[in-house]
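ENTRY TYPE: paired fold submission
RECORD: A
CONTENT: sequence, then structure tokens
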Amino acid sequence: MDKYHPGYFGKVGMRHFHYTQNKHHCPTLNVDKLWSLVPAADRHATEQAPSGAVPVIDLTRHNVTKLLGNGNLPKIPFIVKTRLISRKAELKVIRAGGKVELIA
């Protein structure tokens, strides 16, 4: 019956023997959820006096490995520490007045 749908049967792609999921485990977080990791009191204090202390958001403490760029950020300065970050997320953090520090 391969006459009407050529290429339907057969093997496609490459094989990966003994695929372990631990090597590919990469919990992610989008930019729009980034400020939910900051306590409400710290966020309110930063909004009132943006020239004061800058909050440091360490994503590795929250078991997040990679920061992705979906969503928007408020124009408040902050520092993000993460292992991996997408190009789009890095641009959004810098445009919002923040800084990105990569952790090995």
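RECORD: B
CONTENT: sequence, then structure tokens
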Amino acid sequence: MPRSTDPLVIGRVIGDVLEPFTSSVSMRVVYNNNSDVINCCELKPSQIVNQPRVDVGGNDFRTLYTLIMVDPDAPSPGDPNQREYLHWLVSNIPATTGANFGEEIVHYESPRPIAGIHRIVFVLFRQLGRQTIDAPGWRQNFNARDFAQVYNLGSPVAAVYFNCKRDSGRSERRR
């Protein structure tokens, strides 16, 4: 059987977070106006403090999307007992615009890994129309598959992830 070259498969996003899907809409995630998120890249917590700009493609402004941002490795890759930690949830994003044109359901929370290398995953779903999405009661143990099923979102239309690990601090002596 041939090995996949899809970075979402290699990075185990397909499997741990999502079922296999075919990307059909472009999505661009940019931090601080200069750090594009591409699959497998590494960003430090200090680079992702502020909410990113997320641009959604498509060709019909009437088509709406839901964006989720999750960490399947929380609190640590060796013991991901909070998988998937929900960092951000935005719904009703019109095609050809960005997340800032949608309705923020769960406010952006910057990832702050404490141990190991974490995968931070952005997933975009196409909605059947404008809909009300309720904020979950907590961020930990969110499940993208269950969420998509509850809100009848179907398979994702785009996804991208980056790796993030704790910033290395300078070793300073205590006085």
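NOTES ON RECORD B: Helices lie at 7-10, 13-16, 144-150. The beta strands are 27-31, 35-36, 41-42, 53-56, 64-71, 85-94, 103-106, 117-126, 156-165.
STATUS: closed
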